Amino acid sequence: MPNQLSKEAASQIAVEFLKQQKNTDKIEIAMIEEHTDGWMVRGTCPIDMEGHPWAEKFAVVVDWKGKIKDTNYALL
After folding, report:
1. Cα separation of 48 and 13, whole Å?
2. Domains of the chain: which residue ranges?
3. What does pTM read for this prediction?
4. Could you tell me if 71 and 59 are in contact, meaning their C-beta atoms sit under 8 angstroms apart?
């Protein structure tokens, strides 16, 4: 299937999704990888754990049509 979504567009979709999910504007993209089913956007964002700031890493898969297909979060 031809790539219908640019790397930049996938990154923007992932950032907007994460801003809503995590209620923060501090989304840092570390890497964007092309996969057969779309783009995987990886990076970090801050979270609040019982009053203590922590960093959380994320991986968001955006398919070629611009839909979020998968998310994965883990504390750093």
Report:
1. 23
2. 24-75
3. 0.90
4. yes
Q: Could you say which DSSP state residue 36 is in? A: T
Q: What is the largest CA-CA distance in the chain?
A: 46
Rg of the chain in Å (alpha carbons): 13
At 13-58, the pLDDT tens digits run 999 999 999 999 999 999 999 999 999 999 999 998 899 999 999 9
Residue 50 phi, psi (nearest 5): 50, 45
Q: Answer whether 70's CB lies under 8 Å from 60's CB.
A: yes
Among candidates 62, 29, 60, which has minimal Cα distance to 45?
A: 29
Please enumerate in sequence order all residues whose Cβ is within 8 A of that of 68, keeping only pairs 6 or more positions apart, or say none: 13, 14, 17, 60, 61, 62
Q: Is residue 44 packed enough to be buried (19+ CB in 10 Å), middle (13-18) or exposed (0-12)?
A: middle
